[in-house]
Amino acid sequence: MALDRWIALILLGICLIYGYTAFFTMDAGLPPFMQRNPVWPSTFPKVLSVLAILACLVIVLGLEKGDGTEKAPDINYRRLTDYNLGQALMLLALMVAYALLLRPAGFLLSTVGFLFFGAMILGERKYHVMLLVAAIAAGSVWYLVQEVLGIFLRPWPFFLMGG
């Protein structure tokens, strides 16, 4: 079995556990007034798990390969160094750094840094455009979450917020 099918099989197991949790355990603690709502807190996880299970099944069963006239290239795990492995590992390290810096550095600074350095790792060299796009994206998401949804999201580092 090809590497992509093994990865899809592992993801299928994870999605099945996630789907079981979404369908059978998330709604047990809902208060009675929320049980009559058409949309529950578990609605998005349910939809996400079903779509992910379907996508994994398409890959595991080989349905994405087509009718056989086109040969899709398989991932050759013996030549992993040919696949920009350095970029992938740097992006993973950047994601971990983003998660660790989100609280102490604040949402805006850590998100702008993540987007800026992520684009730099992927090869973008127009620094002024990257910084502008990252600032607009981070500011827009912060505004939507903070002001529209009413969920507190610390925008700045803790030392600028007074502790």
TrEMBL record:
<feature type="transmembrane region" description="Helical">
    <location>
        <begin position="130"/>
        <end position="153"/>
    </location>
</feature>
<feature type="transmembrane region" description="Helical">
    <location>
        <begin position="44"/>
        <end position="63"/>
    </location>
</feature>
<keyword id="KW-0812">Transmembrane</keyword>
<feature type="domain" description="DUF1468">
    <location>
        <begin position="6"/>
        <end position="153"/>
    </location>
</feature>
<protein>
    <submittedName>
        <fullName>Tripartite tricarboxylate transporter TctB family protein</fullName>
    </submittedName>
</protein>
<feature type="transmembrane region" description="Helical">
    <location>
        <begin position="83"/>
        <end position="101"/>
    </location>
</feature>
<keyword id="KW-0472">Membrane</keyword>
<keyword id="KW-1133">Transmembrane helix</keyword>
<feature type="transmembrane region" description="Helical">
    <location>
        <begin position="7"/>
        <end position="24"/>
    </location>
</feature>
<dbReference type="Pfam" id="PF07331">
    <property type="entry name" value="TctB"/>
</dbReference>
<dbReference type="InterPro" id="IPR009936">
    <property type="entry name" value="DUF1468"/>
</dbReference>
<feature type="transmembrane region" description="Helical">
    <location>
        <begin position="107"/>
        <end position="123"/>
    </location>
</feature>
